[in-house]
């Protein structure tokens, strides 16, 4: 019979002050550094445009921020906006009101309008009124201000455009709102998205009216990722990070996609692994384990989101490897057909090969081209987690 864990020994050995962390919050996803590095050009552009509009009381600029996930878009927009508010207070100027919405949470016009009204001190019910009524109440809320500069930030904007018609109607009304004195009520729109082609989803009239300043965020280089990690290294006590750990993690992510969020997540996980093992230093061994753990979680999430046909193909490949059979294209396809024949439609061989290519791009499988002379060419397919 297995013994229960020795909790008494665990608590005896565990000492709260023995942790290798000094300030764990530095590695939290919500942490906003006081000095945002490697995005100085983007910050300066946003800062200059917004402060100019405040000083001159002129029509504010709209912005679209583009870039792959983890390239610092959200942090970059929040940083200068905080500085603009602080500066406007010192200069005794009209302080702008910020409204931030992540469209992964509130992704319909009604829900966004409801949160906008709440930001302006007006409550509207969750149900019982239409989107048009909600918009009317929003107009009533902003027209109560003698002077207002409202900055609306819509993060993950591509999720809002799942209903393209409703999204375009929302923007059309917003940029043409009726106000008794439009010079005293100014609205800036800031859209943040990972989709570089999202602007094609906008109606041409709306895009013309918005005339946004487009700011692109390229992936971080290996050197930039190192600098970000050195900044976050303050989360640990002095001399805890072993030599080369930061460079190793940065090099790995630079080869992948330059995602700073993943970068910080891996460093945090490596630190937690060392801390739980009560090791005095974070070594490259911990970093490798953290990367492996992160990759496994990521692959699991990708597989869970795949269509059923792709999952059946992966199952067929896995079955072939378990049987130690020759997993060439034809054999894998026959196994896939066997798995689908009772419950699911069967793809043609051409569409099957298209799915194979997509799975390879996702790094879920490997393919190796085999040249078999007169019998023609084929591919050997293997299933793996890298």
Descriptive overview:
- By secondary structure, this protein is of the alpha/beta class.
- The strands form two sheets. The chain has a five-stranded parallel β-sheet, with helices on both faces. The chain has a two-stranded antiparallel ribbon with strand order 6-7.
- Strand 6 and strand 7 (377-383) form a beta hairpin.
- The chain contains 15 helices and seven strands.
Order of helices and strands: HHEHEHHEHHEHEHHHHHHHEE
- Secondary structure: number of strands: 7
Structural class: alpha/beta
- CATH hierarchy class name of the largest domain: Alpha Beta
Strand content: 5-15%
Give the low-pLDDT segments.
Answer: none
The count of helical stretches stands at: 15
What's the pLDDT, averaged over the residues?
Answer: 87
Assign the CATH architecture of the largest domain: 3-Layer(aba) Sandwich
What is the fold named in CATH at topology level of the largest domain? Rossmann fold
Q: Calculate Rg over CA atoms.
A: 27 Å
Give me the oligomer status: single chain
